[in-house]
Amino acid sequence: MKEARDFLNSRRKGLGSKFLKEYKVLLKTLQSNPDFQVRYKNIHCLTLKTFKYMVHFTIDIPSKTVHLYAVLSTHQNPNKHWL
Fold it and tell me: Can you tell me the distance from the alpha carbon of 54 to that of 13, in angstroms, rounded to the nearest whole number?
């Protein structure tokens, strides 16, 4: 998140803060309704509205828990960000 914020701030002052605010709104959305599109296996994905980033997460239904795994730019090669 810090890397994305810093990159966006380097493009335009204040853009990183706008990104983090939008991310916080997305987290609140996940709290109330986490059942979004399953992209592969059991990994759900949800994109930010303004920014080209996608949040990857799983849902543990019995414990009512959402596990965030990655927030990746959709413009970058995802293979270089995954271990």
Answer: 22
